[in-house]
Amino acid sequence: MTAITANLLTVVLYLYSISVPAGSGAPLVFSVFEMPLLWITCLISATILALKKRRLIFKRPILKWTILLLLFCTPIPLSSLSFVLNYTDTYEGSSGYKPRNGVTIKDEEWFYTVNHKMAIHKFFKLNREDYTSVNDSLFRKDSVWVYLSPQGDTTKLEQYKNGVMVSTINKKVSK
Q1: For residues 90 and 118, is the Cβ–Cβ distance under 8 A?
Q2: What are the domain boundaries of the chain?
């Protein structure tokens, strides 16, 4: 029962933390405070229950189920499932904002998960310098986006102006 509660609470808190606006600190609070506190409590209560009922749950016929259920009293299965379901080929490694001359340019660097080399370099534009109180969805695609192969070769260039793609250049990559 403890493991079920801990797993359900972890899922609910995780879904809440990813639904709040960026910059709120909810994901940090979830990963640094809530999740460890929740799982430490679960592990302590599971250990106490296992010690109290050890004559029953560690008997030979049900030992394999006991070990499996104790494993579910840790975040390992849920974390493994989350990793498998959320695996992507690329991840956003960095982004930055550069306000100047009445506009803000945002750049994003995306990297390959396998080798951590840059995959895409993107640029966005906001027609005002104050970007701190603005949702990222108001930024429009801008400038030249560079797509790279896992080996580091340029595979595609896309040029944007005010959110509209102006041109695309596909490059042949030698293997």
Answers
A1: no
A2: 2-85, 90-170
Does this model's pTM top 0.90? no
CA distance 141 to 125: 6
CA atoms of 4 and 30, how far apart (whole Å): 18
Pick from 129, 165, 122, 130: nearest CA to 147: 122
Query: Tell me: the pLDDT tens digits for 73-120?
Result: 777 787 787 778 777 888 888 888 999 999 999 999 999 988 989 999
Map residue 168 onto helix, strand or coil. Answer: strand
Q: How confident is the model at residue 117, as a pLDDT? A: 92
Q: What is the DSSP string of 52-105?
A: HTHHHHTSGGGHHHHHHHHHTTSSHHHHHHHHHHT--SEEEEEEEEEEETTEEE
